Amino acid sequence: MKQYFYLSLITIFFVGCGNSPSPVETTSSDQLTETISTEEPILNDQPMNKENQGGSVEDIIKEFPDGILSFLSTKEKKCLNENATFDMLRQIELDLLGGRPFSQDAIEYFDKCNIPPPPLPGEGESNVQAFPEGNAPKNVEENVKLVDIKSLDQDGVSPHLEIVDNTTLRLFYSSLSANGLAVDLCDYDLNCIRQGAIERIQDLTIIETTNGVRRGYFVEFNPNTKSKEIMTAVFSEDGLSYTNQISLGISDGGSIAWGVPDAVVIPDGRIRIYWVDESSGMRGEKIVSATSNTTDGISFTKDPGYRFENGYVDFEVLTAEENNWKAIFSFSPEGLPKIPQSLFVATSNDGLDWSFTGVPISPLDLSYLDPTGILLNNGDYLIISAVAPNELGDRDYVLYKKILKLP
Q1: How many CB atoms lie within 10 A of CB 140?
Q2: Residues 195, 185: contact at Cβ < 8 Å?
Q3: Fewest Cβ atoms closer than 10 Å to its Cβ: which of 79, 219, 302, 303?
Q4: Distance from C-alpha of 157 to C-alpha of 256, rounded to nearest angstrom
C-alpha cells in the first residue's frame, strides 16, 4: 500500500498543471488516515435482547465492526466460536471500548486460541500485540533485525532504490521539495545529489526484463477515466525520462486504500506486480498481485486470492529466486496513534503464499512505511523507508536508511 499524503499545496500545484494529483497524495494507506472518524464510540453496556443472544463471532462483528474480533484470522474466529460463549465475546468488545481490563475467563479463551489480547491505553511497548498475527512461529524471525537506523534528512515517501554500479545507487521518491518524483544519485552511504525530477507520476519501480528492456511501473492519474491507474513505460538509463507509456488496465476502482505497485522479475522471467487493493472496513487493506503473460511485462493476469490481509501494506520483494523469496512490508496507519506503522519481513517459495510472524522488526517510537531495498555483497539488505510520527492527520515524512539482517 503505499501511502502518504502531503499538504494541499502540492495538490494545488498539480491541478494547475493539468488536473493531475500530487505525486504523494495517492499512496494508499496513509490516505485512510484522512477518513478516520473522530467521533467517540457509543458504549452500550446493556445486554442484548434475548432473541439476539446465542449468535456467532460474525454477529458480534456486525455490532462492533471496528472491534478486536474483526481483525482476527478465520482460524482464530473459529476457535473462539468453538470455545467461548456469545455473551463472553460480546463482553470482551464492551470492555475494550470502555477501557476496562478483561476478565480472567476472557484471557483464558484468548490464550486457548493463541490470540494475544490487545493492550489497553498506556501499555506502551505491549502494543506489539495489537498487530494481526502471522502464520509462522515467532522463533522463525528471532534473528531478523534492523540496525544502523539513520535519517537522511530528506522529506519523501514511496522510495525506490536501484543499483547503478558497485559504487553508485539511484534513489527515486515522491517529494514535496522536488515538486514531483525526485531522482537522486547516491553512494552506498546514501550521500545523494539531486539529478532531476519527474512530474505527475508516483510509486515508481523499475526492473530489467529478460529481453534487456528497462521497464518502469508507476501510478498516474488518467484524466479520461478520472481514476488512478498502474502504467508501464520504457525508462532511460538515467531514470529521468520514459517513452511508450501503456496502461495495464489496473485502476483504483474508487478505493482510497489503493496503489503502491511493486514490480519484480520472477524466476521464469515474467513480471509480477504487487499492490494494495480491496480495502473494506478498518484496517481492511489487502495485498494482491498480477503476473505478466509473457516476459515483455505488458499484459497481466491477476493472481487468485490475496497475498496478505488485515491491513498489511507497502509490499516490496527483496529476493525472488526459486524456492527463496523474501519481502519487507508495512502496516495500515488506521491504528495510530496507539499502533504504529511498522516493518515486517516474510518468506515464500513461490511469491504467492507467504509466511511471516506478525512481529514488527522496526522500533515502535515512530512509524515506518514504504520500504525499498537492495541486496548487499555481504548478504545484508540496505533498506530505505519513509518515517513519520505516531500520530493521525498531517505528518512530516522523512526518509531513513537502515540495514536489514536476515538469518
Answers
A1: 17
A2: yes
A3: 302
A4: 17
Beta strands in 168-299 (DSSP E): 169-175, 180-186, 192-198, 201-208, 214-222, 227-235, 242-251, 259-265, 271-277, 286-292
* Nearest partner of 260 among 285, 283, 239, judged by Cα: 285
Dihedral of the CA atoms 158, 12, 155, 331 (nearest 10)?
A: -40
Helix and strand totals (H; E) in the chain: 6, 20
Half-sphere exposure of 27 (CA within 13 A, CB side): 34
Contact 148, 402 (CB under 8 A): yes
Contacts of 251 (CB under 8 A, 6+ apart): 222, 225, 227, 228, 229, 230
Report CA 112 to chain centroid distance, whole Å.
30
- Residue 269 backbone dihedrals phi, psi, to 5 degrees: 95, -10
Q: Averaged over 158-172, what is the pLDDT?
A: 97
- Yes or no: say if 407 and 395 are a contact pair by the CB < 8 Å rule: no
The stretch 319-324 carries a mean pLDDT of: 96
Question: What are the structural domains of the chain?
Answer: 8-33+138-405 (2.115.10.20), 50-124 (no CATH)
Confidence of residue 291 (pLDDT cuts 50, 70, 90): very high
| pTM for the model | 0.69
Q: pLDDT tens across 333-392, in order?
A: 888 888 899 999 999 999 999 999 888 999 989 999 999 999 999 999 999 999 999 988
Per-residue pLDDT tens over the stretch 175-232: 999 999 999 999 999 999 999 999 999 999 999 999 999 999 999 988 887 889 999 9
